[in-house]
Amino acid sequence: MAFSSDCIFCKIAAGTIPARTEYADELCLAFHDVNPQAPTHLLVIPRQHLVSLAHCAPQDAALLGHLLQVAAELSKKLELSNGFRAVLNSGADGGQTVDHLHVHLLAGRTMHWPPG
Ligand code: 5GP
Ligand code: ZN
After folding, report:
1. What per-residue confidence (pLDDT) applies to 25?
2. Tell me, what CATH number does 87's domain have?
3. How far is residue 40's CA from residue 33's CA, in Å, rounded to a whole number?
4. Which residues are catalytic?
5. Ligand 1: which residues within 6 Å by Cβ?
């Protein structure tokens, strides 16, 4: 499985950097963001090192679907019945700061549109 030794999320997936994990399976894990932007702010990441959505290929479609399905399951588990926002930032203009694919799951306050 692809691993980048200088990637903070690969280290979280490997367990060498601690995180408040909410869910884990063989393909992905979900943990609380260290700098939450909403009362609930989780990151769902693949275990394998994929840089961003822009770096995904057709063979990654099932994994991408799995990440979104896990986000949906977490919204039920955490009873986010008032709604939530799932976000993938990609690249510099997208606001991506960690170059390991992740889905933000934000909830607990009203979100605004357009995003900043
Ligand atoms: P991006 O800006 O790339 O879309 O999102 C990266 C997210 O990762 C940010 O919300 C940031 O707070 C979070 N983050 C960065 N480093 C760590 C860390 O070491 N642990 C956790 N739990 N979150 C992190
Ligand atoms: Zn990585």
Report:
1. 98
2. 3.30.428.10
3. 9
4. 102
5. 8, 19, 31, 33-35, 43, 89, 95-98
